[in-house]
Amino acid sequence: MNHPDSYRGEEVVVLGLAKSGVQVAKVLHERGALVTVNDKKSREESPEASELEALGISVVCGGHPEGLIHEGVKLLVKNPGIPYSAPPVRQAEELGIEIVTEVEIAYRLCAAPIIGITGSNGKTTTTTWTGVMLEAAGMRPIVAGNIGTPLCQAAQEADPGNWMVVELSSFQLKGTQTFRPRVAALLNIAETHLDYHGDMEDYVASKAKLFANQGPEDTAVLNWDDPVCRDLVPYLKAAILPFSMTEQLMEGVFVRPSFVPDTEDELSRTIVYRSAGGQETEIAAVDSIGLPGRFNVENALAACAIAIAAGADPAGLAAPLAEFRGVEHRLEYVADKKGAAYYNNSKATNSKATTMALTSFRRPVVLIAGGLDRGSDYMELLPVLQERVRAVVLLGETREKLARVAGLAGLETVISVDNEDSAAGTLVRAVREAAGIAREGDVVLLSPACASWDMFKSYEERGRIFKEAVHNL
């Protein structure tokens, strides 16, 4: 797309009244575009409408009216979550109108170099952790996108001395054209969002757009343990900086096991960076990392690689590795009740995320799971249910599917919670059911393996209700 300034006097439609939509509308309006914002929610459900109208921006709520998209429209900026099958998007495609997401607009406005981070799991933790590392290195990061400040707002506030650290979804990346991050990181790929993308091919292709416009002076950070990530290597033009939990790389960030002095078989593990010239820096002991779980070691490796690619000194990363305590709704400790520890992992919206959470605990787990049905069979959970889980409490659209997998895993206690009068009431009942079967020494873990939208507005809302229910036990 062209620079936002080029749409002065042209008709632009912004589809979706979320935070990003509001900011995009303001940006384009300030640059003289004739902006119409449209949302299918009613006016009563759209409090942002009044703010935009006060600025002179046209807002249409309550559906997608005929004539919204027409030949005179030059640009459609859509909320990332709105599918390409939505009528206004299909109409724009048929008319050859440019269709982008906020990421493309923000990129055109941003004076700072951008770090783009995507993956099926671990994005928010890795993005936040990278920001902490760059802050410790004095590199003035701005953490934005799906977390923190809306991207368009942050892009206008940034200067060349900042680093923009951006968490990006496949939905956002699918709607990019010229977006070019200085550092691009792909953490992993798991089967998810198939209801939106239709198949894994489109999902992977959308993620891979992160690298599409990079050149040799840019860096691509890849998970070397993920075969889908490695398969992208022949198509990348950027310099590649890999990270690995399992392989001592010729170049990159990896974990090195070594024998502990004065013992015969105990191993210690150290995070190591090896440069292209073969110079090694021992960054920190794995045991010093501030977050539990194998998958958080992987997040730590990714954050180290990203920070190093941006210019941080690897020798200065030990402190932010040790001091970082995580992000809300991501394996978040809530409370102990009658000897059982309760954890909120509401952000786990697919099977792989739940698997990684379960493998973080050596104690028996009572798992609360279930949510929006996106077409997965959840068989990926079978081994970890057999190995780590004592009982499950299930809710949401997927409860029958998950009950089948739990049965195949041989679990004797499988409780299915039917919908109460409210989503909150259903989750509160699930927490009480879990508390009723939890034993001293157990972990009660909310890790749904599903998105929240069948019952809740967001995984954050789901997590907050869970925590409140635990504290009220």
UniProtKB/TrEMBL annotation:
Binding of ATP, residues: 119-125
This enzyme catalyses: UDP-N-acetyl-alpha-D-muramoyl-L-alanine + D-glutamate + ATP = UDP-N-acetyl-alpha-D-muramoyl-L-alanyl-D-glutamate + ADP + phosphate + H(+)
Q: What class of enzyme is it?
A: ligase
GO BP annotations of the record are:
cell division; cell wall organization; peptidoglycan biosynthetic process; regulation of cell shape
Q: Which Pfam families match?
A: Mur_ligase_C, Mur_ligase_M, MurD-like_N
What would be an example GO MF term here? ATP binding
Sorted alphabetically, the Gene Ontology cellular component annotations on this record are: cytoplasm
User: What range(s) does the Mur ligase central domain occupy?
Assistant: 117-307
Q: What is this protein called?
A: UDP-N-acetylmuramoylalanine--D-glutamate ligase
Which gene carries the instructions for this protein? murD
